[in-house]
Structures are given as structure tokens and as C-alpha cells.
Amino acid sequence: MIFKQKAKKNIQDRFVIVSGLPRSGTSMMMKMLEAGGIPVLTDHERVADEDNPKGYFEFERVKKLKEGDVDWLHKAKGKVVKVIAALLTHLPSDYEYDVIFMRRAMPEILASQKQMLIRRGENPDKVKDEDIAALFDKHLAQVIGWAKKQKNIRLIEVDYNVALKNPMPIIKQVNYFLGGELNTEGMVSEVDPKLYRQRKA
Fold this sequence. Notes:
- The protein has about 200 residues and is α/β, with parallel strands linked by helices.
- It has a single domain, classed as P-loop containing nucleotide triphosphate hydrolases (Rossmann fold).
- The chain is about 35% helix and about 10% strand.
- The chain has helices at about 25-35, 85-90, 105-120, 130-150, 160-165, 165-175, 185-190; strands at about 15-20, 80, 95-105, 155-160.
- It has a four-stranded parallel sheet, sandwiched between helices.
- The protein is globular, with a radius of gyration of 16 Å.
């Protein structure tokens, strides 16, 4: 974890970001934070499906950050929005962000992404797992390293695998990170082990 102090309680004045690799538990964290009492910025364009039965909680314009589309950011004030790791570095430095960065066992991420490709009728074996894993590991190190250097970013890393097994300690840490006023019991109720389908030793 990279944060040093508890956040100010007035979450209405801050920007909360959930980030991580695709299939790393970002949607679960979005749902947990919503249950905890933070409004979610989403347009519902990407609807729930077999891969994410409880929804993706995405805001489509986030995908245009790299193109410089940041006019929507004022809508995120006091809310939580999902920004995948690849786009995190494109957030403008005008604002201060509290980033919850999801980590998950790499073999599970790869297996989950493969299953999604199969359901879409795409070839899941174009690139070897070890090559993808190496690229992802390098990418994560670069993004986390970048975040540590930013004065306008506070960041906490959350282990998806640990959160599923024993959610309350993780939830208490997230609650402290965000100011200590979340509904922790509500957050626990959104942790659904039945959706943990790509388990790897």
C-alpha cells in the first residue's frame, strides 16, 4: 500500500478511481464502493453479461482519455469511476485522485481473459501466456511506479484473491483510505465467491 494518511472525510470534493488490469476485480470493487455509499459514474452502455453478471460499471468516455477527452471529469467529482491501468497515466494533473488499484493472481487474469475471448468467438491462443504475463507485469510496474511519483495521487493496492477469502480487513483498509465513512457491512455483502470462477493455485 502506498498511502500514508487517512483521506479527508469530505469525499464530495474528491475523485475516486478504481483501476487495474481487465479481469482483476475492478467491477467487484465498483459494486462494493457503491454499496458503501459512493455514487458511481457509469453510463450503463456496457450491460451485464455472462462474464460480469453484476455489470461492468463503465463510463464509455473514459476510453477516450488517451485522445484528450477530459471534459467529462467534472461529473466524477464526489463519485467513483473505473479507469483501467493503461489509461491511468492520461488523467489530467488538475485534480487530486484517490486510486484503488486492483491486483489479482496473473494466471487467473489470463484464464479469465481467455474465457471472455472464447465467448466472443475469438482465438484465445494468439500469444503465449508467459509472453502476455511478462508484458502485463512490466506494464503494472510502470503504472505503479508512475503513480508513486505523482503528488496529486494517493494509491492503495487491493488484492482481489485476499478480498474474496477474507473481505472485511481489506474493506476496513479501503474505508480508512477514503475517510472512514463507508458502509462496510454493505460492502461485504457485495463480495460474491460464486463469481470467483477462474481459480488457479
